[in-house]
Write a structure and sequence with these properties.
Length: 280
């Protein structure tokens, strides 16, 4: 069963404020039952058309992505180019992860500061602050662009995942709303949305083919039966797993920490989850 995705436009002259903290409730679950392979087709088609339209019209503003009982995730555009996205699903954690990976010199410099508070650390690593450093040549532009691209790709992946789950669970459809803004002099790194969007689609297709549609990479696995896990693994593997799988680190976090592909790492846990040895 396919739902109709409603798209409406609104005008709003508020300036883009950058990386906002927004709230969204996601419906995650894990099931072995088979599911349709293409429930995401409509959201992919709609977003593709949205990107092409905004590029042609040189749209500046936000695309708010909402659904009943949810607040919104937003994609931000400047002169038709994708520049930023915001989400409340681990926004700080995933942003810092990208900075650690692609801008290690920045992290190293900040880490040398003595007695820095968590609030001060977040302020120094927020989008507006680091992008100003790019503007003044303090951070490599290419490295920062890669960090932002990966951040955007993760959020686009999550949008498709959310829309898919809502259809599978017969939830109300996702809405896309254009909120147009006036031109702004704020400095942005801009990207060709088509390239990032294609990467997000490729990642989602691989996720589906691996039968992970009902499992989110933003979930954190936890060991529920340590004795059973020890019986099903070697001693070295068991000792490693009980250290890194703590119920706090998501699959994305673990992939980064262990320098392992996200897809294969997630697949490795599935037999343990099916046996009830691990939980999500």
């Amino acid at each position: 069963m396919y739902w109709t995705l409603n798209v409406r436009k609104e005008r709003n002259t508020r300036a883009i404020t950058g990386l906002q903290t927004l709230h969204i409730q996601l419906f995650y679950c894990y099931e072995d039952a088979s599911a349709p392979t293409m429930p995401c087709k409509l959201i992919i088609q709609t977003l593709t058309e949205k990107f092409e339209s905004h590029k042609e019209k040189q749209f500046t503003g936000a695309v708010a992505i909402t659904a009943e009982n949810l607040t919104y995730v937003a994609l931000y555009f400047h002169m038709g180019r994708l520049v930023l996205a915001s989400t409340s699903v681990q926004p700080v954690r995933r942003w810092h992860r990208q900075l650690i990976q692609h801008c290690p010199q920045l992290i190293e410099k900040i880490s040398k500061q003595k007695e820095i508070t968590t609030q001060a650390l977040r302020a120094q690593l927020c989008y507006q602050t680091v992008i100003e450093k790019v503007k003044h040549g303090e951070i490599n532009r290419i490295s920062m662009a890669k960090a932002v691209e990966n951040y955007l790709c993760e959020i686009l992946f999550d949008i498709v995942h959310e829309a898919t789950l809502r259809e599978l669970h017969a939830k109300p459809p996702v809405l896309l709303t254009d909120i147009q803004h006036k031109e702004t002099s704020t400095f942005f790194l801009s990207f060709r949305a088509r390239n990032i969007w294609q990467q997000a689609q490729d990642d989602w297709q691989a996720w589906q083919q691996a039968e992970l549609m009902r499992c989110s990479p933003n979930l954190a696995p936890i060991i529920g039966q340590s004795q059973a896990l020890e019986e099903h693994t070697s001693k070295s593997v068991y000792n490693s797993l009980i250290i890194i799988i703590d119920g706090k680190q998501t699959f994305r976090d673990l992939s980064f920490r262990l320098n392992q592909p996200l897809l294969s790492l997630t697949q490795l846990t599935l037999p343990y989850i099916r046996r009830g040895v691990m939980g999500l």
